[in-house]
Amino acid sequence: MSAFQDTREQTQQKTLVHLLSEIDRNPSFTQRGLAAELGIALGLMNQYLKRCMTKGWVRASQLSPRRIRYFITPEGFKEKGLMVTDYLSRSMTFFRDARAQCEEAFAYAKAQNWVNIALVGPGDLADIGQLVAQGMDLSLQVVDKTAADFSHFDAVLITDIMDPQGTYVAIKGKVEAQHVLVLPLLHISMGTTPSI
Description:
The protein is of the alpha/beta class. Helix content is 52%, strand content 15%. Helix 1 (3-25) runs antiparallel to helix 4 (74-111), helix 2 crosses helix 3 (42-54) and helix 4 (74-111) packs across helix 5.
């Protein structure tokens, strides 16, 4: 499973957990308010709520023509607990895999005397890379794939988990292939570029 799929599924689980938590905390919430809080479209919030109701995790009672009160069923509490456990487990697995692969990539870079490394793509993987590199005498800088010039870097490590293949394609012509470090967890198809 690709890093993007893990992230999308984790995002959906996180949204469902937040929705169930909000229903538990405030049964009279508004879909519009919760959608704004989560930064998602109102229609998507409605789909999540309908999914929860279809699965029997949430029930509703009409208070007035424009007001509905929601409550979590025992099945909903159980599912919420399972989702939280799964989310945390997958997050920890991702962290362990990312840490080990970053350590390996940085060890390879040091063996090549590459100390100035671009992390292409902000986010969790770049943060993990920066944590791993502490005390390794490496200079890391997070940059965007649209950067025009990578010539002042010894190597480039792709850390974009949302579009790793697109990032690889975007930088392929800007960096010598042997100076692109690719983590296996991103499942990038590289052609002739060696992976770490």
